[in-house]
Design brief:
2 copies of one chain form a homodimer. Chain A is of the alpha/beta class and about 280 residues long. Chain A has 11 helices and 10 strands. Chain A has a 6-stranded parallel beta sheet with strand order 4-3-1-2-9-10, sandwiched between helices. In chain A, strands 6-5-7-8 form a 4-stranded parallel beta sheet, sandwiched between helices.
């Protein structure tokens, strides 16, 4: 699997994100392939990537990936839509092991879910501006109709835990009214940010109300975990005991408070690193 | 004024912030002392500082200040409450010219505005956690009652321009109910973040409604401009023509769109720099 070293099924999977949101991908991985050891890196000193330029995002993402490669991972998951959208080619070029971005699996899942080919995608400014979902979706189905919208308030809403109340509904409505104004026929909404699974219920409900028909919501965390299982194939660790999770972060702030909300289990600790 | 070089009244004032919010300080400066040339640096590649640790904030702030000192400024304004709260001593120690933080002027203005000595302060997580406003206020008046709250949604609200609608009112209410639950007698609210002046009206109105009495709102941008005029004294540039404004940023993203909202005038351009 590796080009310039030996990688075995006992090696860990590496996952990185700009912050804590990528822990929704770790959660999905631990559910899909529980025997795997996982190394997670949150670049919390430089979060968020979503408001930064492609050049800056690529530089940061390469440093994150190298940190994981230095620890012998057999697979890299970019659990950050902004980094996937802006830096995937550079990350693949720099890695001797397979690299899975957040955009491609989400795009595939969305095309599998839609009945009429009308898709909507929401994410950070960086992800939406990159046009990465449009590229990934149209390369698979040139006939698909895609509408896109940046939703900057959704990340702090998820972090505050205001995910099922009047403010969450009003903010979801403000954004989704804009999205459905682009295309009233959207039947599938892609959550193009790893923070957004915490808002999945309210987005599904408000989206369906605005549309007047059921709207399926696809989150890329589950799609990435499935893609990881496929990519590993016979290289997956099939032991019956649960794998280790080792977490690293570039800054301490709020990690203890926020991580369990995204991971869905207590965080046993993390190590501070400087990239 | 300088220790190891000559600084004249013709030299510019340097202002830095983690992003675009500090342009509210530039706006106040251009109103208070219009003849001054100003160099503004927004560290937009690493925004926001508010969610980062004190050590990281100090490192970034020192780099910003050095950028301004290298361009010969006669005075440095830290137009970022998080950087002021976490890095002021280090910045003063590293500068041959006077340094004005955001916290001390805001604290003085708040104490001048209150009638009963009951103050509230809101800001980013980093500013509130630092306890810098409590320190600054209690060193001036040990009897003052101070309540504090971090309000992470207010920055993206200001950036979206959602500053006078149902969402702004609900978010303001959600936060201010928590603040006034700490002390119902608060009569003065300090805006401890340079983004917040855009939400001044809604915060004043909602705060007064919750309190049941008028609540004065003090913003540190105006307080800093006044402190700058006092610090310059005879070193102020008293020419009658308007000064130059030269803007620098570490990342391009959204600056053209956001800057006029905070500056109150069109941005004539900015130069991209790498710190």
């Amino acid at each position: 699997m590796g080009q310039d070293r030996t990688v075995t099924k006992r090696h860990p999977i590496g996952v990185f994100d700009s912050g804590v949101g990528g822990l929704t991908v770790v959660r999905a991985l631990r559910s899909a392939i529980p025997g795997e050891d996982i190394i997670y890196l949150g670049d919390t000193a430089r979060v968020p990537y979503g408001s930064k330029s492609p050049r800056t995002v690529e530089r940061y993402a390469l440093a994150c990936q190298q940190f994981l490669l230095d620890r012998g991972v057999k697979l890299v998951l970019i659990a950050c839509n902004t980094a996937s959208a802006n830096a995937l080619p550079a990350l693949i070029a720099a890695s001797p092991v397979p690299v899975i971005g957040a955009v491609e699996p989400g795009a595939s899942s969305a095309l599998a879910a839609t009945r009429n080919g009308h898709l909507g995608v929401i994410g950070t400014l960086g992800t939406i501006r990159s046009g990465a979902y449009a590229t990934a979706i149209h390369s698979r189905n040139p006939e698909a109709q895609l509408s896109a919208l940046a939703c900057p308030l959704l990340v702090p809403l998820a972090e505050e835990g205001w995910t099922d109340d009047d403010i969450a509904r009003l903010v979801a409505k403000r954004y989704l009214v804009q999205l459905f104004a682009q295309d009233r026929e959207i039947d599938t909404l892609v959550l193009g940010c790893t923070h957004y699974p915490l808002l999945k219920d309210v987005l599904a409900q408000v989206g369906s109300e605005i549309a007047g028909h059921p709207v399926a919501v696809v989150d890329s965390a589950s799609a990435m975990a499935e893609a990881a299982r496929e990519a590993l194939g016979s290289g997956a660790n099939r032991r019956s005991t649960a794998g280790r999770l080792d977490c690293f972060a570039t800054d301490t702030s709020r990690l203890d408070e926020l991580a369990p909300r995204f991971l869905g289990e207590p965080l046993t600790g993390f190590e501070l690193v400087d990239l």
